[in-house]
Design brief:
The chain is α/β, with parallel strands linked by helices. It has 14 helices and 13 strands. About 40% of the residues lie in helices and about 25% in strands. A hairpin with a 3-residue loop joins strand 1 and strand 2. The chain is globular, with a radius of gyration of 22 Å.
Length: about 350
């Protein structure tokens, strides 16, 4: 019996779900506010293959056969856009979908401090990294940043994505979104080729490997504004990860490049709201300054956390400060803040300073 997958996906979008999972011999699972919920009856591998036959282009089908996985974008007849990942598994072929909004959220709705919005709108060069685990809204943040930039400044914006997710539009800027596999062979070749296209801003969807990281640093070093992502959990870890990808004889040069080009690292988490009405953004913001540049150059990345304590600019935010602010505003509970914090003692101190007891944590 054919699977009415479009009806299921459109329903998930209407219910504000973030993800939909199809597995052979299992029910379909929807993720809403981080919680998975099963719907319908178990589906077969044949139904999934039939669904993919209708969704995938010929080259995507070939990649699934040869590489046993493929990323793709699909739009239902009802207008729901999806980022899909199809893959082989022990029972056959599985598919996971991320539901994509048609347009990015306005940057003001994300909850970042005003200094972040100002820097994103007006910076002339440098590297901005948005980091965090999978599913924490990194692509959403980047799309909102780029849309904000396009609205505030006239310029030429090029994105290199796998696949293209949010569709960006502007009446004042040139925006060209290039998809890996469709428009460019890979991230590395896409990064190199965009230098010939007179860009002002480049977004690299993900710094996946040594070649992509090296090319992205070179982009930033040549005076462009560059945005990208990494699957790291904090600013210091991000710096270490980038440096450690390179061989020992290259690391001194990379530290110099990173110290010169790094502008900001935004580490983010999506945490459950107290009222159960979805998720809210919590973040750590590492803004480069003279001290951080020196720590990077001198191979003292372990000292970077000290820069948060010494900062007087107001442009550094620790995760615990962000979580405490959400507690004080009544947006999340104290228990949620402790669940997501990295340093419970620091969170306790911040809450106590603001007259809130830690409930024995």
């Amino acid at each position: 019996m054919p699977l009415d997958y479009e009806q299921i996906i459109d329903y998930a979008a209407q219910e504000l779900c973030s993800d939909v999972h199809f597995s052979p011999n299992a029910r379909i699972y929807l993720r809403r506010n981080t919680v998975l919920q099963a719907v319908g009856e178990p589906i077969t591998n044949e139904q999934i293959l039939e669904m993919l036959g209708a969704m995938l282009q010929e080259q995507d089908q070939l990649q699934l056969e040869q590489q046993h996985q493929v990323d793709f974008v699909f739009r239902t007849a009802g207008g729901t856009r999806l980022r899909g990942n199809a893959f082989h598994e022990d029972k056959g072929t599985g598919v996971s979908f991320r539901i994509i909004r048609e347009r990015p959220f306005p940057i003001q709705d994300l909850g970042f401090p005003e200094f972040v919005l100002e820097r994103i709108a007006h910076m002339r060069n440098g590297l901005v990294l948005v980091v965090g685990p999978t599913g924490q809204g990194k692509s959403t943040t980047l799309a909102s940043f780029l849309q904000h930039r396009a609205e505030q400044q006239t310029g030429h914006i090029i994105t290199i994505e796998d696949p293209v997710e949010y569709l960006l539009q502007s009446d004042t800027s040139v925006i060209q979104q290039r998809e890996v596999g469709r428009d460019v062979r890979d991230f590395h070749s896409g990064i190199k080729s965009c230098l010939r296209a007179d860009p002002d801003v480049i977004m690299v969807g993900e710094m996946r490997d040594l070649e992509a990281i090296s090319a992205t640093l070179t982009l930033a070093e040549t005076g462009h504004v560059v945005f990208s992502t990494l699957h790291t959990s904090s600013g210091p870890q991000t710096v270490s990860r980038i440096i450690d990808v390179f061989s020992a004889d290259q690391q001194e040069q990379v530290r110099s490049q990173l110290a010169t080009t790094l502008s900001m690292v935004i580490s983010q988490r999506l945490v459950p709201r107290a009222d159960g009405a979805g998720l809210v953004l919590a973040y750590e913001i590492l803004t480069s300054n003279y001290a951080i540049q020196n720590y990077i150059r001198q191979n003292k990345v372990y000292q970077i956390p000290n820069a948060f304590q010494a900062d007087t600019s107001g442009e550094m935010v620790q995760l615990e400060q962000s979580l405490a602010g959400l507690v004080l505003s009544g947006i999340i509970t104290k228990d949620t803040a402790y669940e997501y914090c990295r340093n419970s003692e620091q969170l306790t101190n911040i809450l106590k300073t603001n007259g809130i007891e830690a409930n024995g944590v």
